[in-house]
Amino acid sequence: MLYESLVVFAVAFFAGLAFYGATQGRLSGNTRLAFQLYLFLVLGAYFIVCWSRGGRTLPMQTWKMRVVRRDNLPLGVVRATLRYALAWPSLLLLGVGFFWAFFDRDRQFLHDRLAGTRIVMMDDARP
Q: How confident is the model over 23-41, as pLDDT tens digits?
């Protein structure tokens, strides 16, 4: 998760820089809300594209992990979008959805359990 946060920071930083330049540095009121929505969508695009095309982000490639459906088939765009949407409450509720993995019988995050996905090592997943 540390590696993933570094990549997410870089994506959000450069996307934010572009938005900041486009708005000439005016981030107040409705522009601030639009900025937050913009970052949510940009990060969503990053994760959804990575998960639906190959099942992994760059840090997941480094650790030889892949996200797949319960039946080991690749995620489609819809399931990747669902996983992304469910990960936000997991994170925003003090990370409770991530700590869930410590108590889950299969060591899955709560959003993976709800989305019907799981993280596997590359040797355990179909190519």
A: 888 888 889 999 999 999 9
Q: What would the two tokens of residue 3 be?
A: 């590696």
Rounded Cα distance between 31 and 101, Å, is 37
User: Taking the mean position of all CA atoms in its chain, how far away is CA 110?
Assistant: 13
Q: State the maximum Cα–Cα separation within the chain, in Å, rounded to a whole number.
A: 50
pTM above 0.85, yes or no: yes
Alpha carbon distance 122, 124 (integer Å): 5
Q: How far apart are CA 112 and CA 120, in angstroms?
A: 12
pLDDT digits (tens, 9 = 90+) for 86-96: 999 999 998 99
- Contact, 115 vs 89, CB < 8 A? no
What one-character-per-residue DSSP string does 8-21 give? HHHHHHHHHHHHHH
